[in-house]
Amino acid sequence: MVQYTIAQSPEIILTVSGKDSSKARDKAMDQLLEMMDEGKLPTKLSNKLSEGFSPDEFIEVKEPDSLDESSDDALTEAVQILSSLVTLKEKVDRSHSEALKVREQIDILFQDRPVTEEEIANLKEGFKTLKTFAQANQRYQAAREQAEEARAILDRVLKSTTAE
Fold first, then answer.
1. Count: domains in the chain
2. Within 10 A of 92 (CB to CB), how many other CB atoms are there?
3. Element (H or E) spanning 3, and its range?
4. Same domain, 50 and 108
5. So what's the pLDDT on residue 71?
6. Closest CA relative to residue 28, chosen from 51, 60, 52
């Protein structure tokens, strides 16, 4: 079983069978759409989701004790978690610099001069960049917690093998 949530409403947990995969994310998307159709989501959230939401934006919910040091796969899983953290960190860093550029553009909204259509178009595109950064940062922060545990497991395994 795998569980997902969404950044806009972390209290909503969608559970599907199997492991994290595109198929599982599609099943979670079906559940989310069903909840939306049944009116089980807050209106504000439904509006945000109808503007565009993809299964890739789901955040996998993992139990804090999901890494079992006694299992044979603990080291492999720890390495995979740390590898995922690298990817997320890279995405956050890349989108952060883009978000800073957008932030500079936002100041034109507070000037007393007319704003051109081109500037408005750039800002609208920029808001997508800001959203991408916010979502990537949120996923990174969530993954970082689990990666701390993975790093500790890796340290203990490496320490125990050098002691032998």
1. 2
2. 20
3. strand 2-6
4. no
5. 52
6. 60
Q: How far is CA 55 from CA 59, 71, 107, in A?
A: 9, 30, 33
CA 105 – CA 25 distance, rounded (Å): 35
Instruction: Output the pLDDT for position 114.
Output: 93
Provide the residue type at 64 as one letter: P
Same domain for 52 and 72, yes or no, is no
Using the structure block, give the residue that is written with the tokens 């007393």: 112
Same domain for 142 and 74? yes
For 26-65, b where at least 16 C-beta lie within 10 A, e where not — what string? ebbbeebeebeeeeebeeebeebbeeebebebbbbebeee
Domain of residue 45, residue span: 1-61
| Domain end call among 38, 61, 84 | 61
Tens of pLDDT, residue by residue over 66-79, are 445 555 567 788 88
